[in-house]
Amino acid sequence: MSLRSVNLPGVGTKYEFTTDRGDTVALFFTKTGTIQMYTLQRGCHTPSAAEMTPVEARRLGNILTGAIIEAENESVEIAFSALADLRISVHTYVIPKQVAGKTIEDLQIRTKTGVTIIAVSRREKNIINPPPSFVFEAGDGVLVIGETDQLKRFERDVMVR
Fold this sequence. Notes:
Helices cover 20% and strands 40% of the residues. By secondary structure, it is of the alpha+beta class.
């Protein structure tokens, strides 16, 4: 399998490869920010196409590299091949009313559950690595990281109060 890339003036960049089976896969990273993927099965004359946003393309990349995606829950589990048996989950949640007004410290999130809040999204603004004094509002999107058991404790002890 050889990868070819071509700069297409005014369009973007095209990456193309042919699989060992003879199928062709082409990806176009357009100047408008979308990613287009075309596949052409060996022996066929009409390609199939899909257009993706950068977020969707990253999700596809995660799947193709072995990360486990649970689309309904916006969760990714990452297995590190260099570190045997290490699996870390990254998961998003929406803060419910009963948690609003409390800080990360008030809830003792890390002490009680082991998870770490790595980002909060509020009204289209992202707060990366919020401090322990950060006060949650209902509807905040939070990104947490931890092992599967830690995420379950977070759901049980923090999200359902």
